[in-house]
Design a protein that fits this description.
Shape: extended
Distance between the termini: 139 Å
Helix content: 40-55%
Length: about 400
């Protein structure tokens, strides 16, 4: 029984295929485009009445496939060829033909195993991830990427694109020693200038080591400020740190800090402290005066004008108004019919309201009667008249005692 089971299954499958082909036999006979797709040399019989046939598309030299004629007929002439439909790799849709740059990086990579096919056998729209090697800088090494994404961008080395921090594109490499002095490491936890991308768009905390002035800026802005050229061509190149401070720190604050440093170097320390205290007191007084003036201005400011209510726009003379439609002619018969219909409806509504009111009053009366019956206890039924008692029976007369003398007689 077990030996005959596979043969029975094959026979049933063949019978199902024959039945399916018999159902679509007229359609196969009429499909001339399907007969034109038959392979000229690989089919033993050039007919469509078989289980599997070889097909060949004229749009590519390697557009060949094996399929059932019924399946190809159902797909239609537009999607008959799997290579043209993007379901099978060929010379016309592979990575090597559509993107030679990615194919070159594919061949340079050595981490793809023997099981991974080459770029000639993989479609450009594949979502598989493969190893590639940067063709611009061999020192960048290999990277892993999706085939479709890399083909769309013509290469996706993360180091060339600037999305990975390296020694050459870090903030420390672009700014030099100034990066260590400017970036406030206490505000950027677990990150150092060597671990921050020089072209990043996220802001980092910065602090001027001289004045203590703090601000936030992106590494890209710091790099651009450090690389800006002087305004005069004969000016000597300035220090990158000085360029950054000139771009972000107020000039008045820097000049004041420089003057204080110079004063501290020439005068005694107590005088410097007294000057700082006086400056702080004067700044506080100015701030209080400014706030008082601002409050006085707000108090003396006139009240805001009342809001005007929205009005309809006036008609401008000289402009033609929108023409009104001509009035409709009144039909007396139709008006009389409408009036009669309204009167009938009004009378019907009044009758219905009266009937509803009567029903409601009856319901209220019935409810009141039921409540009154529940409130008063029921009267006991009248007692039935009692029958008169019969007179007692008369006592029997006493028996006379016979004397002994009479008995002897």
């Amino acid at each position: 029984m077990d030996v005959q089971q596979p043969a029975l299954d094959d026979g049933l499958a063949a019978a199902a295929v024959r039945k399916q082909q018999n159902d679509v036999r007229p359609q196969l006979a009429e499909a001339t485009w399907l007969a034109a797709l038959l392979h000229p040399t690989k089919n033993p019989r050039r007919d469509l009445f078989g289980r599997m046939r070889w097909f060949k598309c004229f749009k590519g030299p390697d557009h060949e496939w094996v399929d059932e004629p019924v399946a190809v007929l159902r797909r239609g002439p537009a999607r008959a060829c799997p290579c043209c439909a993007g379901l099978q790799a060929s010379r016309t849709n592979c990575v090597a033909t559509l993107c030679p740059e990615v194919a070159r990086e594919w061949r340079l990579a050595k981490r793809n195993g023997p099981a991974v096919p080459g770029p000639e056998k993989v479609m450009a729209t594949s979502q598989a991830a493969v190893w590639l090697r940067c063709r611009n800088a061999p020192a960048h090494g290999e990277y892993r990427a999706v085939v479709a994404a890399v083909v769309r961008t013509k290469g996706g080395c993360p180091e060339c694109a600037g999305t990975v921090v390296t020694k050459s594109n870090s903030l420390k490499a672009t700014l030099g020693p100034a990066a260590t002095q400017l970036v406030d490491v206490s505000q950027v936890p677990r990150l150092k200038p060597a671990q921050i991308l020089g072209t990043a768009a996220a802001e980092v905390a910065c602090r001027d080591p001289t004045t203590g002035y703090a601000w936030r800026a992106t590494p890209r802005a710091l790099t651009e400020a450090a690389n800006q050229t002087p305004k005069t061509p004969d000016a000597p190149p300035a220090d990158p740190m000085e360029k950054i401070l000139d771009a972000f720190v107020p000039r008045a604050l820097r000049a004041r800090a420089a003057g204080m440093v110079k004063q501290a170097s020439t005068l005694a320390f107590p005088k410097v402290v007294d000057g700082l205290v006086d400056d702080a007191v004067a700044a506080l007084a100015r701030t209080l005066m400014d706030e008082a003036k601002a409050g006085k201005k707000v108090a003396n400011a006139p009240p805001p004008p009342p809001k005007k209510s929205p009005r309809t726009p006036r008609r401008i003379p000289g402009l033609s108004a929108r023409p009104r439609p001509p009035p409709r002619k009144k039909d007396p018969e139709a008006a009389a019919m409408r009036a009669a219909a309204v009167a009938r409806t009004r009378d019907a509504n009044a009758a219905a309201r009266a009937a509803d009111a009567a029903a409601a009053s009856l319901a209220v009366a019935a409810a009141a009667a039921a409540l009154a019956a529940r409130a008063t206890p029921p009267e006991p039924p009248p007692a039935a008249p009692r029958a008169p008692k019969p007179p007692p029976p008369a006592a029997p007369p006493p028996k006379k005692k016979k004397s002994k003398a009479c008995a002897l007689m």
